[in-house]
Amino acid sequence: MFPYGCNSLLLMKIAIILAIVSPQVSSQQASCLGTRLSGAEDSGSYTLDVDGQEGPLAEFNVYCDFSGLDTMTILHHNSEDRRRVSSGGDFHLQVAYQGGLEQIQAVVQKSASCQQFLRYECRNSPLRLAENISWWETTANNRMYSWGGAGRRTGQCGCGVQQNCKPSPDQSCNCDANDTVWRTDEGYLADLTTLPVVNVSLTAREGEGYLTVGPLVCVDESEFIPNEWWQIALGTAILVFAALLTFMPAFIRK
């Protein structure tokens, strides 16, 4: 029993206040972080509405990873398997994501960081980025002549930037050794202004190789916390104030 006249009317008022100010759990938040803060605990596939109910973009499914302190949004595509690249001709890989490119770009723009893995395994199959023989493309169809781990350094792989390519540190990429040894150039693309990868072209192929393009992985920006959280603070303040008004006169009378 509640003392000093706390009756069912007060309980009803409190219930109404809680219903108004409490955040509503929804499967259609604008981000994985919003989904997590709204009550979701398990990593998995969730529906996002990246521009809200009033925006023109359609809802789409992403994979939300809640396993760590950071909330990860993983955008899968249809070409994540290791692809064989044969000699004799050109190789082109078109990458199609879950959801449209406008939705993908909206996720990237809201993210604190994003990265996408690129790997090319080669034998007698040079990349020759500096000669415009190989490239990948952005959503704006801009050709990027740099590889994972090299940032936006044109004509370079990660080992070229670090000057530790094999067998010669003077090479731009390991694969540019163009020999019979199996070599690998790999690394992450992390420039938010160019991601995601929508196409990879390896022209004038020699020898043999394998290409891997990983999913786009983004870390949600912590400032994009759903604005329902101000309601929690307001609701708590209202409940405390209501309790003081209800119980304080009785305690004063004592």
Write the layout of secondary structure elements.
Elements: H1 8-21, E1 28-29, H2 32-37, E2 44-48, E3 60-65, E4 72-75, E5 83-86, E6 91-94, H3 101-110, E7 111-123, E8 134-137, E9 143-144, H4 158-162, E10 183-189, E11 199-202, E12 208-220, H5 229-253
Parallel strand pairs: 1-2
Antiparallel strand pairs: 2-3, 3-4, 4-12, 5-12, 6-11, 7-10, 7-12, 8-9, 8-11
Helix pairs in contact: 1-5
Task: Using brief descriptors, characterize the structure shown.
alpha+beta, 5 helices, disordered N terminus, about 250 residues, about 25% strand, elongated, about 25% helix, 4-stranded antiparallel beta sheet, 8-stranded mixed beta sheet
Detailed description of the structure:
The chain is an alpha+beta fold. It has five helices and twelve strands. Strand 3 and strand 4 form a beta hairpin. The chain starts with 7 loop residues before the first helix and ends with a helix.
